[in-house]
Amino acid sequence: MLSHLRVVALATNIPGPLAAARLRRLGASVVKIEPERGDQLAFAARAWYEEIVTGMDVVTLDLRAPDASARLDELLREADVLLTALRASALASAGLNWESVHERYPRLCYVSLTGEAPPNDDRAGHDLTYQARAGTIAPPAMPRVLIADMAAAERVATAALALVLRRERNGESGFANVSITEVAMEFARPYEHGLTPEGGVLGGGLATYKIYPARQGWIAVAALEPHFAQRLQAMLDVENLDDSEMRAAFGRRSAQEWEELAQHHDVPLAAIR
Q: What is the average pLDDT across 109-125?
């Protein structure tokens, strides 16, 4: 699909490489540039790192080395998209701010991934702090999903494709900044609007959209629409779809048994792994 698109990703850790991997899966050729110390994800979760870089050309390059500029120039002259996941000060010191890059490579589309949007794009952070600012953490529990990083990766890939589409239509390359904090705040909208707080419609306040203990394990039921609720009631053989009756009914079988039965009745229900 994107077989003619060439991407250079100056990114380590999670969101930047994930964005590059997304473009790679769509057919783009990707060169991933890593510092001499490597990518921290390779040490923390080697199998996932290998999965992410599959199909990429991984290049080790110290941006402060005397020959780094020539090697980077060689890569960027042939590229369509540059993805960076560095703080503003690091980009400026390497001569990789948008103005400098655009002057040297006028056809190159550029997406810069930062923790926060300018003028705070030099502020340090990671997924945990971005989620903290967005209000998607319930202390003291740690997040089970790195939602800020994962969502930002998709946003970066989308921004890159939008810039390339514009260039193909009118010949103009462009620049986009993706702020992980802003992405995390957008993903917090269901909570802010009352859907997912405790007791909200999607936060346990609706008996047909809730988590229940089974005889063995736990199940998640999501029978929001009336036709799903009707099928659920028939499947459970209860008089009312309220918390107490449903809790008692779910206690009669294991979570896996309920999942298999729900598939037969076309009810949105799943055992929690």
A: 95
